[in-house]
Amino acid sequence: MKLDTRVFPDITSLSRAALEEIMRILPDAVAKRGRFSIALAGGHTPAKLYALWAENYKTQTPWSQVHLFFGDERFVPEDDLLSNYRMARETLIDQVPIPAENVHPMLTDFPSAEKAAEAYEVELRRFFVDDAPPAFDVQLLGLGIEGHTASLFPDSPALAENQKWVEAVTAPAEPPQRLTLTPVVLNQGHNTFFLVAGGDKRNILSALRIEPDNQPSKFPAGQIRPSGRVLWYLDQAAAS
Ligand code: 6PG
Fold first, then answer.
1. Taking the complete model, does pTM exceed 0.90, yes or no?
2. Residue 33 near ligand 1, beta carbon < 6 Å
């Protein structure tokens, strides 16, 4: 599969470049739609981008017009060390003057992951108003060593979901209970940036690259094929 890749020496330069692209997209989105919506990725890789955003673009960002969503979440309390929301809060949200109503976490204080997923879909429908699946101006995604992205893992039933926008899934990873946007939403994004760093991602990137373009990918990350731009921001260790 042909990937539109941009390779950088390290995670800091990768993150800075992706952030600069976000800052180029932001004003156009605000001009067109009166706001900028971004779905944040979880895991470790995006933390550097979030920290750079808070450090270097705090004053240039029109926070009242920026809306932060999440591509997936672990079904744990929001103060749990494994929470993607906690990671984004510590690196970005608590460091910038974004209005509380502009931060849209996947809340997990529900009796079940299924109820939490339903609640997030209600939140998306409230914000995006339109009944059509939402198209984020930017969606950040990571890549797992076995090809998962967001919390869409290989062979997950959520990969075949064609109605729901958010699904509760059981992942072969800690913690197993997670919430994830489905391809119904992820395949709408205007700009999708995969952020991939580290030598442990080299094999999965090679496996994606050798897949034929005319067949569906075996990997969830390869099954996210939005009509909008898809850029792969890699560090040298992952790309070589
Ligand atoms: C999560 C992420 C997940 C992540 C990949 C890569 O909740 O864990 O959404 O999809 O992006 O597992 O994780 P690292 O960035 O930690 O390598």
1. yes
2. no
142 lines ligand 1 (CB under 6 A): yes
* Residue 194 contacts residue 141 (beta carbons within 8 Å): yes
pLDDT > 70: percent of the chain: 100
**Structural domains in the chain, sorted by start:** 5-57+64-177+186-205+222-235 (3.40.50.1360)
Q: What angle do CA 207, 228, 119 make, to 5 degrees?
A: 90
Q: How far is the CA of 144 from the centre of ligand 1 (A)?
A: 6
pLDDT at position 129:
85
Give the C-alpha separation, 100 to 210, whole Å: 44
Q: What angle do CA 234, 235, 240 make, to 5 degrees?
A: 90
Structure tokens at 228: 């909008």
Residue 169 structure tokens: 């899934």
Cα 63 from Cα 36, distance rounded (Å): 9
Mean pLDDT, to the nearest integer, of 36-54?
98
Any idea how long the chain is? 240
